[in-house]
Amino acid sequence: MSIYGDYIKSVIRTVPDWPQPGVNFRDITPLLQNSAAFRKLIDSFVHRYQEMDLDAIAAIDARGFIVGAPLAYELGCSFVPVRKKGKLPFKTISETYTLEYGEAEVELHSDAFREGDRILVVDDLIATGGTMLAAAKLITRSGGLVVETSTIVDLPDLGGAQRIRDAGYGVFAVCSFTEDE
């Protein structure tokens, strides 16, 4: 957790029973609307990664872009979008992953990385970990090296961060929420 983790967590809104009964949705909109909180959020990532040798930030569609773009700018790295299927105009590689209600697919331009590029994967939230794992697999298949996966929020009760660790990738989250919070 970051030095601003408790503060960032306090700004995130919990919306009970959305999008379905029994689900506590962690809404980052108030975090984005609060300029001081948003700056602390980006600073949390910058402080963690500023001394790492990174070539690119791979951000997951779409909320990962919110953190990934300013982080790439601050670290002097390239920004590479990992998009939902059908959103990239050039030759792509893709990875299918399982969702609670079916399957989804993410894509990456086939020329996004050079062999051995050091990549940080960024998204807004880790729930079951499927999207993050799919992105990490794509990056590895493309020749990149995933240095770490990072997120604003981890939901550890859903086991995603552990699944990502079990697959051999490091995980950093600015804050986390348990189901009863």
Automatic annotation (TrEMBL):
InterPro entries named in the record: Ade_phspho_trans, PRTase-like, PRTase_dom, UPRTase/APRTase
Pfam families: Pribosyltran
A GO term from the CC aspect: cytoplasm
SUPFAM superfamilies: PRTase-like
EC category name: transferase
Domain Phosphoribosyltransferase: 33-156
Domain of life: Bacteria
Annotated EC: 2.4.2.7
Cellular localisation: Cytoplasm
Catalytic reaction equation(s): AMP + diphosphate = 5-phospho-alpha-D-ribose 1-diphosphate + adenine
One MF annotation (Gene Ontology) recorded for this entry: adenine binding
UniProt pathway: Purine metabolism; AMP biosynthesis via salvage pathway; AMP from adenine: step 1/1
Function: Catalyzes a salvage reaction resulting in the formation of AMP, that is energically less costly than de novo synthesis.
Record-linked HAMAP family: Aden_phosphoribosyltr
Subunit text: Homodimer.
NCBIfam families with a match to the protein in the record: apt, PRK02304.1-3, PRK02304.1-5
Family to which this protein belongs: Belongs to the purine/pyrimidine phosphoribosyltransferase family.
Name the UniProt record assigns to this protein: Adenine phosphoribosyltransferase
